[in-house]
Specification:
80 residues, alpha+beta, Arc Repressor Mutant, subunit A, three-stranded antiparallel beta sheet, 14% strand, extended
């Protein structure tokens, strides 16, 4: 059984490793943003989210992901 202290240490370690990543797979971008696979590939095809290929793998640079997210429209008020 993992102690709470160990669980917190592992969570901090994962968070630190995520901050140091140079690139993400589409699945990782999905997990980080909550966006669906189709939405991510649609943004790539439209040229809004630059992606690179490494063999068969599609990679998105952390800096490109950050720019893409910052360029999304800002919601002023919550729709009800």
């Amino acid at each position: 059984m993992i102690s709470d202290r160990e669980r917190e240490r592992r969570a901090r370690q994962r968070a630190e490793s995520e901050r140091q990543r140079a690139a993400y797979s589409v699945a990782e971008v999905m997990a980080l943003t909550g966006a669906g696979r189709d939405s991510i590939y649609k943004a790539i095809r439209a040229g809004h989210l630059p992606a690179r290929k490494l063999g068969r793998r599609t990679l998105i640079l952390a800096s490109d992901l950050q720019r893409f997210l910052e360029a999304l429209p800002v919601m002023v008020g919550a729709a009800r």
